[in-house]
Design goal:
Keywords: 4Fe-4S, Iron, Iron-sulfur, Metal-binding, S-adenosyl-L-methionine. The protein has a single domain, classed as Alpha-Beta Barrel (TIM Barrel). Strand 4, helix 6 and strand 5 form a beta-alpha-beta unit. It is built from 14 helices and nine strands. The longest helix is centred in the N-terminal third of the chain and has 19 residues. With 346 residues, the chain is an alpha/beta fold. Bound molecules: S-adenosylmethionine and FE2/S2 (inorganic) cluster. S-adenosylmethionine binds next to loops.
């Protein structure tokens, strides 16, 4: 097994069979071996810096019905909200003063924000804080839409492919949503000139080591600037309410593998990882991650952006979250930095 990790470090690629064997055959000892190498690669390129992204969850309206997601349209118990342009700008103002130089605008697929409205918000942010990067995470749109948002000033786009395998994808999504369409969007985002982030949930229902192997191979081919992974966590008002969460152990292992496969990639230690374990984000950094994404959304709406149960930080002011993360990172010998934090994986 250690030889497979050495091979990954050297050639930055494995076959599907090798990925599957490595993921299925992992052990605590092997994980420690992997994390040591992942940390050393991370330190080579990014030192002990941790980049922060201010996450603004600006709408929880969604036309989609993903079976795992708490803001799916069939969840009639979700209390829906939209932030106005002024509210979003006020989040940026607070965020800038706290040292954020990247704002992530994330939301459901909400027709209430057409291209014109989003472009207007993007250019207002760019006018107010020209030294900041804007990351969008608003799902599947046409190439023309991605291009218009890019031309308005958006720099980066996060769109997890969720799972590469078409059959597995079909078990997690309603029939109209297709794995291939999601993947096409990622290629279109690259073509439109974005720094692109993809990713997947770890431990989603019906997921096998073979699926994870294919996810790794797809990510290798896409060669993105960012990869967001976190454990699947059930939400009580979805069809997957009774399913078990993904584990800390497998999520950390996948983070380590991603760091070795694409050494310069930006890798967040996600809120979901912090939700399944009190030290999840610290452990994520120690497994090779180099980004954290504290919440900048107004506290009045935080609890309504409930993708899964027991999400952390829903009651905290932005400044509390920022300070909390700074302390957490310092406690393990890492430092939150005030920088745009562009990927070195060009
Ligand atoms: N609508 C945009 C999209 O489709 O990319 C962005 C919002 S979507 C809620 C963001 C991510 O949340 C998804 O890509 C998914 O991986 C993650 N997510 C949704 N439900 C989750 C759950 N129950 N557990 C963990 N992650 C979840
Ligand atoms: Fe939000 Fe710790 S990161 S309170």
């Amino acid at each position: 097994m250690k030889e497979l990790i050495d091979k990954l470090q050297e050639s930055k690629a494995l076959s599907k069979h090798e990925w599957t064997v490595l993921i299925e055959g992992r052990s605590p000892e092997l994980a420690e071996y992997l994390f040591r190498q992942a940390r050393s690669v991370r330190h080579r390129y990014y030192g002990r810096d941790v980049y922060v992204r201010g996450l603004i969850e600006f709408t929880n309206y969604c036309k989609n019905d993903c079976l795992y997601c708490g803001i799916r349209k069939s969840n009639l118990k979700a209390s829906r909200y939209r932030l106005s342009k002024e509210e979003i700008l006020s989040c940026c103002k607070t965020g800038y003063s706290l040292g954020f130089r990247t704002f992530v605008l994330q939301g459901g697929e909400d027709a209430g924000y057409d291209d014109a409205r989003l472009c207007d918000i993007i250019s207002a942010i760019k006018t107010g804080w020209p030294d900041c990067a804007i990351t969008l995470s608003v799902g599947e749109r046409s190439y023309d839409s991605y291009k218009a948002l890019r031309d308005a000033g958006a720099d980066r786009y996060l769109l997890r492919h969720e799972t590469y395998d078409a059959e597995h994808y079909a078990k997690l999504h309603p029939p109209l949503l297709k794995a291939a369409d999601r993947q096409d969007c990622l290629w279109n985002l690259k073509k439109a000139g974005y720094q692109v982030g993809t990713g997947f949930m770890v431990g989603s229902p019906y997921q096998t080591a073979g699926h994870l192997a294919e996810d790794m191979m797809f990510i290798k081919e896409l060669d993105p600037q960012m990869v967001g992974i976190g454990p699947f966590i059930p939400h009580h008002d979805t069809p997957f309410a009774g399913q078990p969460s993904g584990t800390l152990e497998l999520t950390l292992f996948m983070l380590g593998l991603l760091r070795l496969m694409i050494p310069k990639v930006l890798l967040p230690a996600t809120t979901a990882l912090g939700t399944i374990h009190p030290q999840g984000r610290e452990l994520g950094i120690q497994a090779g991650a180099n980004v954290v994404m504290p919440n900048l959304s107004p506290t009045s709406v935080r609890k309504d952006y409930a993708l899964y149960d027991n999400k952390i930080c829903t009651g905290d002011e932005a400044a509390e979250c920022r300070n909390c993360l700074e302390r957490r990172m310092e406690s393990i010998g890492y430092h939150v930095v005030t920088a745009r934090g562009d990927s070195l994986n060009k």
